[in-house]
């Protein structure tokens, strides 16, 4: 996300991921999946050091979904059935509160540290996503066995030393 074009491309990827996952909104988890989608990016490389990849995070999201549904007595016997009846929404998915909050937190970081953080917008967005203490991303990270505070510390360190 060195410039606006890269940022727009990242948001387009997040929207495509949300649509692919039959979501009416782009949420923080879709932003994280978009950041992880380019395995050669700084963010994906940093998170891979903690074994967090698009595949492992997607699996963690599935575990979180299953855990949450089990909490209300619903068990999915065949996960393929979830994809069998995809929801159709007109147009592109809109941004949810969790995505907007992550983007806002990233924006605050960029404005606080003018200059070198602008070149690290992807890392600022990662910090914005991982800073959330509540929501699907933190719960999925727990279900996947990832330490959010450790990931956040690594992202802050990378942000300070671009």
From TrEMBL:
Pfam families: Clp_N. Coiled coil: none annotated. GO terms for molecular function: ATP binding; peptidase activity. Keywords: ATP-binding, Hydrolase, Nucleotide-binding, Protease, Repeat. GO terms for biological process: proteolysis. InterPro entries: Clp_N_dom_sf, Clp_R_N. Residues 1-67 form the Clp R domain. Gene3D superfamilies: Clp, N-terminal domain. This is ATP-dependent Clp protease ATP-binding subunit ClpA.
